């Protein structure tokens, strides 16, 4: 069981304002914590004494949260406290990455929870995803693997036998493709329709196709929209090629993570071997070089180091050293 905190404010003590603020707060908590209503066991509200026209617990029941045990209490009058404020605590099950949610005027109560984004860009095999997963865990924020989204587009195109050079067919495919990113036990899963393709998209043929399809403007526009929508809702670490330069140019922290081609090829080789793929190191090295060229030379939103991104060359570094370096850079800025 986990506890989630939240708070919001109303602009006036009216039942309508309280209904709308409570509903907005509970839906935001539910969405950011990926909860179904059955996962919520208990909702405890407290409100400042200037709220008298409706119990927040009643507003929660009206908003459909009637399965949980609901309770409201008035807070003592404390000088200087934020007026017209509703605070909440939820006890929940099946939540792996607790996100506390402070909305409206209450956002100022917890400046430490201010939303932020960490952009990790760089070529394939530089270690971005390993580092991103660790950072997300340590900061208790979401990890969004944007490469998985381009890989899913590529898999769909391969399945549909679409010529990747034919942009209009790819565009039609995007219209019918049902790509969803879900988080299960804190781990990103990529779905095409109802099918979990998280493993399939790692196939070597999908890697090459992803590099080609991700050069298409229509593909990037659609994926970037999805990425911005996810990152707009909560703090996250995103890894990709153009996060700091294009997707989130205002990201609070930007890093460009790279390594020598031979080092990256060896890392991919070890990873694929471990998964049981029969691969050749020299071929992988050539493929990586080709993907680098593809990713960096495409016209629209290429792989590039954003001017304000910190360069991290991981060739001779352990994962722990890279994570420590990035964390210390983040610390310097906060
Ligand atoms: O990081 P990855 O190898 O899973 O990415 C697969 C392909 O998707 C890669 O060749 C480049 C492309 N990509 C991209 O163009 N922009 C991103 N933000 C992420 C990946």
Give the strand order, joined by hyphens, for the main sheet. Answer: 3-2-4-1-5
How far apart are the termini?
A: 31 Å
The CATH architecture of the largest domain: 3-Layer(aba) Sandwich
Which CATH class of the largest domain? Alpha Beta
The total of beta strands comes to 13
Largest sheet: 5 strands, mixed
Roughly how much helix do the residues carry, as a percent range? Answer: 40-55%
Q: Note poorly predicted spans.
A: none
Report the β-strand fraction as a percent range. 15-25%
Can you identify the CATH superfamily of the largest domain?
P-loop containing nucleotide triphosphate hydrolases
Structural class: alpha/beta
Bound molecules: 2'-deoxycytidine-5'-monophosphate
| Cα-atom radius of gyration | 23 Å
**Which sequence of SSEs, written as H and E, runs from N to C?**
EHEHEEEEHEHHEEEHHEHEHHEH
